[in-house]
Each structure stands twice: as structure tokens, then as C-alpha cells.
């Protein structure tokens, strides 16, 4: 049994099936506690590690956490670790719609050659709260930022993240396909492979 160090239902919906398929029993941290750690790290890895250690400390169980976001080349990698609260600055949170609209506004009418972006994710697994050798998995998903929303739906920035290889926005990709190739799926699979190599699965 491990605890998923998130209360985000969208993340749980993506990560839980991957763990289940690997034979790993997992429960979200909301089944155990409601408090949240402050995500004040300077990288996806630091924030994921903080969340994993916090969940493990609170439950006494191994924990797996992720931190992810979108990085736009022309904006120097922004929003990056502030993706979930981009429209509110470094402090506070805001809605997906507000964040998406701010990103479109910041890019303005730049041509597609200047709209390259990637989704990035770091997933961290700790065997216990003070684990000195956490397992870390990384994932990236490359695309371009569209000029406007594609479907009016989707999670986070999915409706403006265009994947050229699939000729679709992320919001148009079926869930079962997305959950095999996304940045989060890549990072989770990397950690699962490390667990297999260590004979922990």
C-alpha cells in the first residue's frame, strides 16, 4: 500500500490506473488527512519531494507525489512551477481558465515558431518520510501553444497545448491514449521501472 500525495481528482484519475496496472495498491492522501504542505521549492522535483515526504510522515506509508506544469520557451520557461497559480502570481491560486487566458495574453500574436512549449512532470517515491534515496521519474511532452482555445474544455492548459505528432490539442486526445504518452504517465512509468529493478514490486 502506498499513499498518493495529492488531493487533486484529475491527478488521481491519471496516476491510480497506472499503479493498479502495475499491481500497486494506492489510496489518495485525502483518505487519511486534509492538510497540505507548502509548495515553495524552486523545481518540480523539490515540490514533489516535499509532498511525498509530508504524506509519508502523516500516514507512515510509502508515498508517491508528482509536480508538473507547462513551460513555454519564448517566456523563459514560464509558467513552470507556478502553472497552477500563474494568473495570481507566485502566491495564491486561481482557476484553470484564468491561467490559460493569461498565457494566451502573454504570448499575444507571436507566430507558431515562437510558441513552442512542453508539459513537464517530476514524480517522486519515498519508502518512508526520511528516505535518503527517493526514486525520481521525469516526463516531458512537447508541443505548441495555440492562438486560441480549441474545444472550450480540458484540464489545465490542455485546450491550448497542440501536439503536432497527433494533430490534436491535448483536450482532444482520448483519456486512454493520453494516459499512455503524457508527461505524467512517462514519469510514473519511470518510477515503476525503478521499483521493479529494485525488486520492490
TrEMBL record:
Cofactor: Mg(2+)
HAMAP family listed in its UniProt record: Non_canon_purine_NTPase (MF_01405)
PANTHER family per record: INOSINE TRIPHOSPHATE PYROPHOSPHATASE (PTHR11067:SF9), INOSINE TRIPHOSPHATE PYROPHOSPHATASE/HAM1 PROTEIN (PTHR11067)
Subunit structure: Homodimer.
Family, as annotated: Belongs to the HAM1 NTPase family.
Keywords: Hydrolase, Magnesium, Metal-binding, Nucleotide metabolism, Nucleotide-binding
Pfam families per record: Ham1p_like (PF01725)
Cofactor annotation remark: Binds 1 Mg(2+) ion per subunit.
Binding site for substrate: 6-11, 68, 178, 183-184
Biological function: Pyrophosphatase that catalyzes the hydrolysis of nucleoside triphosphates to their monophosphate derivatives, with a high preference for the non-canonical purine nucleotides XTP (xanthosine triphosphate), dITP (deoxyinosine triphosphate) and ITP. Seems to function as a house-cleaning enzyme that removes non-canonical purine nucleotides from the nucleotide pool, thus preventing their incorporation into DNA/RNA and avoiding chromosomal lesions.
Top-rank taxon, per record: Bacteria
Protein name as annotated: dITP/XTP pyrophosphatase
Listed InterPro entries: dITP/XTP_pyrophosphatase, ITPase-like_fam, RdgB/HAM1
Binding site for Mg(2+): 67
The reaction(s) this protein catalyses: ITP + H2O = IMP + diphosphate + H(+); XTP + H2O = XMP + diphosphate + H(+); dITP + H2O = dIMP + diphosphate + H(+)
The keyword Ligase belongs to this UniProt entry's keyword annotation: no
Active-site residues from the entry: 67
Amino acid at each position: 500500500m502506498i499513499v498518493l500525495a495529492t488531493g487533486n481528482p484529475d491527478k488521481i484519475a491519471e496516476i491510480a490506473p497506472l499503479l493498479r496496472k502495475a499491481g500497486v495498491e494506492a489510496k489518495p492522501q485525502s483518505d487519511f488527512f486534509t492538510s497540505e504542505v507548502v509548495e515553495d521549492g524552486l523545481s518540480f522535483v523539490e515540490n514533489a519531494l516535499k509532498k511525498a515526504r509530508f504524506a509519508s510522515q502523516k500516514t507512515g506509508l510509502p508515498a508517491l507525489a508528482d509536480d508538473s506544469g507547462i513551460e513555454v520557451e519564448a517566456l523563459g520557461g514560464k509558467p513552470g512551477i507556478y502553472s497552477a497559480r500563474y494568473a495570481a502570481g507566485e502566491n495564491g491560486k486561481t482557476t484553470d481558465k484564468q491561467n490559460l487566458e493569461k498565457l494566451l495574453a502573454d504570448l499575444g500574436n507571436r507566430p507558431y515558431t515562437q510558441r513552442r512549449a512542453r508539459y513537464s512532470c517530476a514524480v517522486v517515491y519515498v519508502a518512508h518520510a526520511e528516505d535518503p534515496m527517493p526514486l525520481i521519474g521525469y516526463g516531458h511532452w512537447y508541443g505548441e501553444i495555440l492562438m486560441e482555445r480549441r474545444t472550450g474544455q480540458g484540464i489545465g492548459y490542455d485546450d491550448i497545448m497542440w501536439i503536432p505528432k497527433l494533430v490534436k490539442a491535448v483536450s482532444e486526445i482520448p483519456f486512454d491514449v493520453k494516459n499512455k504518452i503524457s508527461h505524467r504517465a512517462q514519469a510514473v512509468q519511470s518510477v515503476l521501472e525503478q521499483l521493479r529493478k529494485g525488486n520492490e514490486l
